[in-house]
Predict the structure.
Amino acid sequence: MRSRLSAAVTAIAAAAGLLATATPAQAAEFTTTDNCDVPWIECSYGDLWLLYNSKELAIRDGHYVTSWSTFYGNVSDYWGTSQYQGSTLTTYRYVFNGNGNGAWQYMKNNAASVQNCAPGDNYRVYYNSGYGGTSQYFAHNEPWGDCNLTNLITALKNENASQHFA
């Protein structure tokens, strides 16, 4: 009995020693306006733009007067993405760029219009993270035309959380 107790005390002491010398996990957080700037996301051409203002207020005299974020592919949560890199949890939060209205605000649940500039990819924008709830379809850009700029439907305006190839 005494040897078991001695072994248990030794094991507890060893575990406590490991915990005392363990390096705590670290966290790094960044903001980005484009999910293709996240190191672990592989992108190709064909971005979906989410704009802070509705299309009537987004462009004036042929120039953008609102901020936007661009995304390629499936994005399960517009709040951002995280990944451990060694012992550091690295997180990228999606924000609008600094181009006017909405500058540097978090993108999730703040977009009013969408512009699909992809030459071949159709998208859906969803109310919930993880591609759930009400959604709206956005057709790809036609080769002879401008990017399709469309207001989000009422249910999705300032209530947008994810996107998926359609």
User: Anything to note?
Assistant: The first strand starts at residue 26 and ends at 32.
